[in-house]
UniProtKB/TrEMBL annotation, chain A:
Name of the featured protein: Transmembrane emp24 domain-containing protein 9
Entry membrane topology: Single-pass type I membrane protein
Pfam families registered for this protein in UniProt: EMP24_GP25L (PF01105)
Gene Ontology cellular-component terms listed: endoplasmic reticulum membrane
Annotated family: Belongs to the EMP24/GP25L family.
Top-level taxon of origin: Eukaryota
Transmembrane portions of the chain: 191-210
From TrEMBL, chain B:
Keywords: Cytoplasmic vesicle, Endoplasmic reticulum, Glycoprotein, Golgi apparatus, Membrane, Protein transport, Signal, Transmembrane, Transmembrane helix, Transport
Localization terms from the record: Cytoplasmic vesicle, COPI-coated vesicle membrane; Cytoplasmic vesicle, COPII-coated vesicle membrane; Endoplasmic reticulum membrane; Endoplasmic reticulum-Golgi intermediate compartment membrane
Function, in words: Potential role in vesicular protein trafficking, mainly in the early secretory pathway. Appears to play a role in the biosynthesis of secreted cargo including processing and post-translational modifications.
Organism: Clupea harengus (Atlantic herring)
GO CC, any one term: endoplasmic reticulum membrane
Protein name per the record: Transmembrane emp24 domain-containing protein 7
Coiled coil: none
Length: 223, 216
């Protein structure tokens, strides 16, 4: 009974800590109305988890405020066919997840909902961002706890996930190489076709010019 | 009962690892850098951490970008102009915010897509090991070396994919250029040849009266 309650508490603390643990991520600055996009070229059936935290610049204190009410970010994710697969607004701290169904370049775009902040238009936002792809999205601590794995089993599980990712990437590479080959063959065909057509056009025009001028001069009684 | 207490112990260990591993991070991003633009990224690093910055230009122009890495005091640790791909490892000598910037300010109309990979510190341990003092068993060290090898395989795959993306975007560019050029040149040929004939006819139409006068 006590053990079960303790486990529950620990799970909860672990989960909460997981959400807060990326405090020291990479950050960059964008304008309030600016849209920033990142490209992720991934094979299909790959999961991506993005964590972000955004801070608004306080001109009076000349520093970035830790949290602002009402400040949020729109996250928009487009798949390689330009179809939107995720479009949601999150608060000043958020986490978005999606899984790719087509291989290729996915675009993750962020912009703030700054219409409310038009008073501070021209303000800067500090965005902390962390994007994890594929094998890095696995939370091994959770997996170990859920499946009750020993250390060795967990290590082997990690190796299995990594090899899985390598395999997916190889498949994607085969698909890309096929596309590349198709493009090259199409260029080859086009160049061949065009050179034949150009030669025909040149010869035809030559004939037409000579014939036309000959009949013109004959009409003018100069030949 | 035994399973429960063991699980609790595991959870406590995992929690400790989570609290400790806040300073370990790998950031890998691909972004578009418009012409005449500069994009900077910042990271808070603890002294003594070994960090690696790797970048590669994926598409755009001559595939080159300026890169600059500064420590919290503004001292430039790494500065290269018009580099296509590079990897730089350093150990943080100070606590604070390190800044690295990519600049496309030398280019007037090509925007570049830049990929970078910034690794801070070593990977966190997978599973907190109670008896970390004792050496790893043979199986465990085999697993560790396979893991390291696979990490470098994945790294090479990423760089290969970026190079392939470069080649592919060039090939697709070439394909569209050939299409436009062939149609354009066919049109130019037709226009030039017809106007040649028309011009020639106009010469003779104007001078018809003058030639007959000269002849007689």
């Amino acid at each position: 009974m006590v053990a079960a309650r303790m486990q529950l508490t620990l799970y909860t603390v672990l989960l909460l800590n997981f959400f807060n643990s990326f405090v020291s991520a990479l950050y960059f600055h964008i304008g309030e109305t600016e849209k920033k996009c990142f490209i992720e070229e991934i094979p299909d059936e790959t999961m991506i988890i993005g964590n972000y935290r955004v801070q608004l610049y306080d001109k009076m204190k000349e520093e970035y405020m830790p949290a602002t009410q009402g400040l949020g970010m729109f996250v928009e994710v487009k798949d390689p066919d330009e179809k939107v697969i995720l479009s949601r607004q999150y608060g000043s701290e958020g986490r978005f997840t999606f899984t790719s169904h087509t291989p290729g370049e996915h675009q993750i775009c962020l912009h703030s909902n700054s219409s409310k902040f038009s008073l501070f238009a021209g303000g800067m936002l500090r965005v902390h961002l962390d994007i994890q792809v594929g094998e890095h999205t696995n939370n091994y601590a959770e997996i170990a706890a859920k499946d009750k794995l020993t250390e060795l089993q967990l290590r082997v599980r990690q190796l299995v996930e990594q090899v899985d990712q390598v395999q997916k990437e190889q498949n994607y590479q085969r698909y890309r190489e096929e596309r590349f080959r198709q493009t090259s063959e199409s260029t080859n065909q086009r160049v061949l076709w065009w050179s034949i057509v150009q030669t025909l056009i040149l010869v035809a025009i030559g004939f037409w010019q000579m014939r036309h001028l000959k009949s013109f001069f004959e009409a003018k009684k100069l030949v | 009962m035994m399973g429960d207490s063991r699980r609790i112990r595991v959870l406590v260990q995992v929690l400790c690892v989570h609290l400790l591993c806040g300073w370990v991070l790998t950031s890998e991003l691909t972004f578009e850098l418009p012409d005449n633009a500069k994009q900077c990224f910042y990271e808070d690093i603890v002294v003594g951490t070994k960090c690696t910055l790797e970048f590669q230009v994926v598409t755009g122009g001559h595939y080159d970008v300026d890169c600059r890495l500064e420590d919290p005091d503004g001292t430039v640790l790494y500065k290269e102009m018009k580099k296509q791909y590079d990897s730089f490892t350093f150990t943080a000598a100070k606590n604070g915010t390190f800044k690295f910037c990519f600049s496309n300010e030398f280019s007037t109309f090509t925007h570049k897509t830049v990929y970078f990979d910034f690794q801070v510190g070593d990977d966190p341990p997978l599973f907190p090991n109670e008896n970390r003092v004792t050496a790893l068993t043979q199986m465990e060290s085999a697993c560790v070396s396979i893991h390291e090898a696979l990490k470098s395989v994945i790294d090479y795959q990423t760089h290969f994919r970026l190079r392939e993306a470069q080649g592919r975007s060039r090939a697709e560019d070439l394909n569209t250029r050939v299409a436009f050029w062939s149609i354009g040149e066919a049109i130019i040929l037709l226009v030039v040849s017809i106007s040649q004939v028309v011009l020639l006819r106009s010469f003779f139409s104007d001078r018809k009266t003058t030639t007959t006068r000269v002849g007689s």
